[in-house]
Design goal:
mainly alpha, 0% strand, elongated
């Protein structure tokens, strides 16, 4: 039965990574397509390539993440907690895609693991260690800090960018901004692979530890390949519902402001992933940077109704996945012998 639950966790981890790429492809391609910096086909291929590179490299960081993230109980109890958390995150991700809402996969997963851990304790199983710290540093603080930093940073960067282009013809400014956006789109896709690839790879390593199939001394090569392949496949499939929300429904942007938003996002994500090892949400960072750059205009360009709806879903994400995982873990507990 342990091997069966382990196989289910691997399958759902692959689905989670695929859906992550499918939904979050919009973070790197939406603005580039919106401002005609890249065609949709080229943008998705570019995002897929750099997502694969970033996710493959993230496996080197995933081992450390798995050691400092959460501590799962051994055996079937730990595997069912992972399974319930992944399943709830997948279900919530599909619903968000259907509604066209950009939301954080990491927040959904952490919320799901927290809910599953509470359910495990409720039926007499073991708890999930470190989940309170994960909720604080991977959900609450990023939810408050990274969007604020991205919004303010992009808003302020519009002024020096506009000042530098004040004597340049608009068609030249637009052309240069579109070329710069193409580079920034690749940087965001690479950072997304680094950030989100770590989570899926860490889940797989935790599953290996819980099942007793690995001692945790190293990350198997198949973990990196599965994570990178699933994330890239999802990116190539493309979640255009969310791309439409970011590129067209949230705010109206010209190429210069689109470049500012993507530049600010890529810098924050790369510094957070590589330099500071912060679990920054790619979706939150890009979305709020777009809002920041779009707000710094002489006319009202922001769709406030859509913004409020997106913010409400961000707050609701960990709560909804925790509730769903709680129910799923209760359903799985008799099968796991709890």
């Amino acid at each position: 039965m342990t091997v069966f639950f382990f196989a289910l966790v691997v399958i759902f981890a692959g689905v989670f990574a695929f859906l992550n790429g499918f939904r979050d492809a919009s973070t790197s391609v939406a603005l580039a397509v919106r401002t005609r910096a890249l065609t949709p086909t080229v943008a998705v291929l570019l995002a897929g390539l750099f997502n694969f590179i970033g996710a493959a490299l993230s496996a080197t960081l995933a081992l450390e993440v798995s050691r400092t993230w959460i501590q799962l109980p051994a055996g079937q109890n730990g595997l069912t907690i992972l399974l319930a958390g992944l399943a709830s995150a997948v279900l919530w991700g599909v619903y968000n895609w259907w509604r066209g809402i950009p939301s954080s996969s990491t927040h959904a997963l952490v919320g799901g693991l927290a809910g599953a851990g509470v359910a495990s304790v409720a039926v007499g199983g073991n708890s999930v260690g470190g989940v309170d710290t994960s909720l604080l540093f991977q959900v609450v603080l990023p939810l408050l800090l990274s969007p604020a930093i991205a919004f303010v940073g992009a808003y302020l960067l519009v002024w020096p960018a506009s000042w530098a282009a004040r004597y340049t013809p608009p068609n030249v400014v637009n052309g240069r901004s579109r070329r710069a956006q193409a580079v920034a789109a690749g940087a965001i896709a690479f950072a997304h692979g680094l950030q989100d690839g770590q989570r899926t790879a860490a889940v797989l390593i935790l599953a290996l530890l819980a099942s007793g199939l690995s001692g945790g001394g190293s990350a198997p090569i198949w973990v990196a390949l599965l994570t990178a392949s699933a994330l890239t496949a999802g990116t190539l499939a493309g979640g255009w519902r969310i791309s439409y929300t970011i590129g067209y429904r949230l705010v109206r942007l010209d190429p210069l402001r689109g470049f500012v938003a993507q530049l600010c996002s890529s810098v924050l994500l790369l510094v957070g992933a590589v330099g500071l090892h912060w679990p920054i949400s790619t979706t939150h960072t890009v979305t709020t940077a777009v809002l920041g750059a779009g707000t710094n205009q002489r006319f009202a360009a922001t769709n406030r109704r859509v913004v409020i709806r997106v913010l409400a879903f961000w707050v609701l994400t960990p709560i909804a996945t925790a509730a769903a995982a709680f129910v799923l873990e209760l359903a799985l507990s008799p099968i796991a012998g709890l």
